[in-house]
Write a structure and sequence with these properties.
globular; 215 residues; Rossmann fold; 5 helices; 23% strand; alpha/beta; 26% helix
Length: 215
């Protein structure tokens, strides 16, 4: 494979080292922030990415998917506890916005946005919590999306991120999370700390190993 020609998708560093490569793509480790990313020339087209999402059974009748999202909903609920009139945005909600359905069912005002399915988004500076549940690993321009989130988030607002984190780059050849072609960014605690710094927030872990709060 060709030498990588892109900078880190999170911090912009040029200190990129090859982690591994397979027949489909290569993975590069940033020496500054620890993000592992896939160069842009290996990304799926937007149409191909949407087609892959359409194969998922991500709807309210899928018990496994609902159970998975209920964990996220519980973290949102605990974060919103005692805070009246909280507005939540599920950023990257998918076609059916199931997390919004779960939160609305427990009295939390949640709205969904997904660039692949819901293109319009005009609510500025109105959300107290923005959730990225299994989203950050897909983003083609992390910093541009963080800037958008910042315009949507109310002052002092909270970001909740759900994503699998890696322990060591050597695990990538066999790690199931890295086999999904729509996943192009892979975080460890160091790169999550960098993301928190970019948003001027503190990183807080939860009882779930893949759910993190930025506040």
């Amino acid at each position: 494979m060709d030498q990588v020609t892109v900078d880190c998708n999170l911090c912009g560093s040029e200190l990129m080292t090859l982690v591994c490569e397979d027949k489909r793509r290569s993975f590069w480790l940033c020496g500054e922030c620890g993000l592992v990313s896939v160069p842009g020339r290996y990304w799926l087209s937007v149409d191909d990415e949407r087609a892959r999402y359409d194969l998922h059974d991500n709807n309210i009748s899928n018990d496994g998917y609902v159970k998975f999202l209920t964990q996220t909903a519980n973290v949102v609920g605990a974060t919103a506890l005692g805070r009246p009139s909280m507005r939540v945005l599920d950023f990257g909600c998918g076609e059916n916005a199931v997390l919004c359905q779960l939160l609305n069912n427990i009295g939390i005002d949640c709205h969904g946005y997904d660039p692949l399915y819901q293109q319009s988004l005009s609510d500025i500076n109105t959300y107290n919590i923005i959730v990225l549940c299994e989203v950050i690993e897909h983003l083609r321009d992390i910093n541009a999306e963080l800037e958008l989130i910042n315009t949507l988030l109310h002052n002092g607002g909270i970001i909740i991120i759900r994503t699998q984190i890696y322990d060591a780059p050597s695990s990538f050849p066999s790690w199931w999370y890295a086999q999904d072609m729509t996943h192009i960014n892979f975080f460890n605690m160091r790169s999550l700390q960098k993301l928190a710094a970019i948003t001027n927030k503190q990183l807080i872990s939860t009882d779930h190993s893949d759910i993190f709060i930025l506040k």
